[in-house]
Amino acid sequence: MLPLVFLPDTPTLLAGSGPAFAKRRALLEAAGIRRLTLVPGRPEPAMLDGQRLVFGAGLPGACAEWLAAAARARGIPVNIEDVPELCDMHVPALVRRGELLLTVSTGGRAPALAAALRARLEAAFGPEWEDRLEALAAERQRLRAAGARPAEVIHGLASRMREAGWLDTFNHPTGNPA
User: What domains, with CATH codes, occur in the chain?
Assistant: First the structure.
């Protein structure tokens, strides 16, 4: 497995119907995908041209198989929800705090474990981490503008996180410093 993060301007097609389609749409929109083509049901073949990612959710078997084959014929990675043999990729369990993205994957072998670990991450990394990331990004920019070398930037940011106690979560096996 190789986790990748696709940027918001990645041309992405989502085809499908029902609650699975709505759930996948919400996930892609929350990820900030701006070039998202939504297709209720089966797309026309030409709609796949120029896409970089293809998702199918809530599709009947034959339609899902066609979509996977059509995407693969164009060299486009495809994910058909809940049909591993039709997937070139899968979506891990996600915790999103602004631009901070934490993921858990079991390669589809133990979704309950991924969900449990995601819940632990959600508890350990609350909404305050969005602001913490922004503060660290600003500090990184300030250090770089002042001429700090990469190692100095890393050391400076690590020191700030230690001083603020932000890394205490990692010093306790339960993730709970109490």
Answer: 1-91 (3.40.50.720), 126-171 (no CATH)
